[in-house]
Design a protein that fits this description.
Strands 1-2 form a two-stranded antiparallel sheet. A hairpin with a 5-residue loop joins strand 1 and strand 2. The protein is mostly helical. It has 13 helices and two strands. Pfam families: EamA (PF00892). Keywords: Cell membrane, Membrane, Transmembrane, Transmembrane helix. It is found in: Cell membrane.
Length: 320
């Protein structure tokens, strides 16, 4: 891998590790209104992201078409608000490992879906790596008790995870990672407020206590601001297919941090699953060989949709 793809891989890996470690924060927000928590999280993240959105942010927003705005609204609804709602709903009748296993299949879905939407065939090495990542995620988490409703909502969570990557592909290029993150956070905050008012009425938002405040700040500043920007910067460099491989690190990070708060243990299955995830990421990202059997070519960089560009060309409309 060249410097661009190496940096993209590290950024995507960091983002997924942050998300995996965020389950500690989630565990102390069980009594806080869901919609209100999401509103505070994404609203604060948007306020922090706007000052660093880059030059010409207003012009880039004005240049968006109604179709692109609709995609941004769908990305926020499906990949952020809807994803979190689906996980919560699934865990009402299923053990947490069940939605985790389904979400662990996201690399396989993205490895197939993104190339098809781009008018090309899936890259075999990326697909094989994604399958290893999915098996590794399953091994780390295991399988728990569930019913039909739990499985249905787990499938919805998988759709949200896939949508978070796939729906962002056409708007990542014109907006850039920082402005895209700011916009989807703003939209998600508005959507969360609307859901809260409709479902919970006047009780949708309350003042968090000290522990809840710390958890919400962690989610907003670290997981959302840092995590989202790193994720989309990584996806910009290596493409959605390879970036989504690193989502297998989410259950690995969760398994590693669980013993720290006494909510789980790290044993032989977790170690074996972690090794499978690492092998799948290495294979699919190109560490063990070029994807799809392509010959090695120095200096190839990737656009947001995973297609290669010529060496050293930085496209002006691809803001950082």
């Amino acid at each position: 891998m060249n410097a661009t793809t190496t940096r993209g891989s590290l950024l995507a890996a960091l983002a997924c590790v942050l998300v995996g470690g965020s389950f500690t924060a989630n565990s102390v927000l069980g009594d806080y209104p869901y919609a209100g928590g999401q509103f505070l999280r994404y609203g604060l993240a948007c306020l922090l992201l706007l000052p660093v959105a880059g030059k010409g942010a207003a012009d880039r927003l004005r240049a968006l078409t109604p179709r692109q705005w609709g995609r941004l609204a769908l990305l926020s609804a499906v990949g952020m608000v809807g994803f979190n709602l689906a996980v919560i709903a699934a865990e009402r009748t299923a053990e947490p490992a069940v939605p985790g296993v389904f979400v662990g299949c996201a690399p396989v879905a993205v490895a197939v879906l993104v190339p098809l939407l781009d008018g090309r065939g899936p890259q075999r090495t990326v697909l094989y790596g994604a399958l290893l990542v999915a098996v590794g995620a399953f091994t780390v988490q295991g399988w728990g008790r569930t019913d039909g409703v739990g499985i249905a909502f787990s499938v919805c969570a998988l759709a949200g995870e896939v949508g978070f990557a796939v729906l962002a592909v056409p708007v990542l290029r014109p907006l850039g990672p920082r402005l895209l993150s700011a916009v989807v956070c703003a939209v998600a905050a508005l959507e969360s407020a609307a859901i809260g008012l409709l479902v919970d009425g006047g009780g949708w938002l309350r003042r968090p206590d000290g522990v809840e405040t710390a958890a919400l700040l962690w989610q907003a500043v670290v997981v959302t601001v840092v995590g989202f920007v790193c994720w989309y910067m990584g996806m910009q460099r290596i493409g959605a297919e390879r970036a989504t491989l690193f989502s297998g690190l989410i259950p690995v990070a969760a398994a590693c941090t669980a013993p720290l708060i006494g909510t789980g243990s790290y044993g032989l299955p977790q170690a074996a699953g972690s090794a499978l995830v690492g092998l799948g990421v290495a294979l699919g990202s190109g560490v063990l060989g070029r994807a799809g059997g392509e010959p090695r070519s120095r200096g190839r960089t990737f656009r947001g949709n995973g297609r290669p560009e010529s060496r050293g060309v930085r496209v002006p409309e691809r803001p950082e």
